[in-house]
Amino acid sequence: MLYRISRFFIFLLPPEFSHHFVLKILKIVNFFHLIKPKEIPSEKPILLNGLLFKNRIGLAAGFDKNAEHINIFQNLGFGFLELGTVTPKPQPGNPKPRIYRDVNKLAIINSFGFNNVGVKKFIDNIKASNKSVIIGVNIGKNAITPYEKSTDDYLKCLRQLYVHGDYIAVNISSPNTQNLRNLHNIKDLENLIKKIVNERIKLHKKFKVFKPIFIKLSPDLNLKEIKPIINLLVRHKIDGVILTNTTIDKSLVSKAYRNTPGGISGLPLNKKSEEMLINVKKVSRNKLTIISVGGIMTPQDAKRRIQLGADLIQLYTGLIYQGPLLVDAIRREL
Predict the structure, then answer these.
(1) pLDDT tens digit string along 280-305?
(2) Which residue in the list 18, 174, 284, 292 is annotated as catalytic?
(3) What b/e readout covers 126-138, taking b as 16+ CB neighbours within 10 angstroms?
(4) Which helix (H) or strand (E) holds 313?
(5) Model confidence over 176-192: pLDDT tens digits?
(6) In the sheet that 107-110 helps form, which strands lie side by side, from edge to edge?
(7) Cα distance between residue 36 and residue 235, in whole Å
(8) Verdict on whether the full-model pTM lies above 0.85
(9) Beta-sheet pairing, 107-110 with 134-139
């Protein structure tokens, strides 16, 4: 009830401004040690890909783009945090305004375009934190990098971030960077995956530590497109997938927002994300770890994803509409 009252006033502010405003408030509250993770007696850690997750609930990429708020989110009870998307060079992203709330549909439409501080500052922020949970780093390409040079950007990020994250998430599915989703094309994807896997072998030998790699996919793929992609990932021993990014299906939002650029997250994405989970689970035959994200708005949504075969889940828009207490509510449900 308290968050619902607070949300009324928060939603009077422009969405991007309110996001940063709320994070500043949480930073102050956390500084005075007023945010602490609750103990859930029935909760048990889970071991996946050699990583011990405190619980199955993660923060989705995009919420903490620059790794500036690690201490806050781990104290809210998350079992892991995925930070980014980060690109080799800093970039401002797309012009503002670039985020909208469709309150009637419990949706967010964003066209951020990988706005971030770049790898160097991103690493400095991770180092400055007191991280105590699993950290995933979500990597992408700079907007100015030609499509045919996309792989170079991913490899640059992988090399620099390898020792700073517990796993690497390769984002080929944001709809807000021109042509990025073309990397779902099998030929281009295989070229990218081969080079990433080969680079990981070198980094594994150099640093004597193995880091899992996850690929973040679009929810707008059909089953015919999903099968060869998943078979490719399994064949090249990619560790897992993140299902899914935002959708560009504007029929899912209110009429007022159907010409708004960007990807849709929140409740309208729920069905698409579930369908992707079901299809990928079937095609992969348990050979990939699955992180399910998209439209998880309640503890019951989260439980259903686990029942459908997800190993882990992530939250984004559910936090905006339901508030931070959603994390502990899901922890109790699971």
Answers:
(1) 999 999 999 999 999 999 999 999 99
(2) 174
(3) beebebebbbbbb
(4) strand 312-315
(5) 999 999 999 999 999 99
(6) 99-102, 107-110, 263-266
(7) 42
(8) yes
(9) unpaired
Q: What is the CATH number of the domain that holds 17?
A: 3.20.20.70
Give the range of the structural domain holding residue 317, as residue numbers without chain letter. Answer: 2-333
Query: Does 113 have pLDDT greater than 90?
Result: yes
- H helical segments located in the chain: 2-10, 15-31, 70-75, 119-128, 150-161, 186-207, 223-235, 270-284, 299-307, 317-322, 325-333
Nearest to 180 by CA among 232, 216, 214, 136: 216
Does residue 251 have an active-site annotation? no
Beta bridge partners of 80: 58, 134
Residue with tokens 């992408």: 140
Q: For 57, list phi and psi in degrees, rounded to 5.
A: -105, 125
Number of domains in the chain: 1
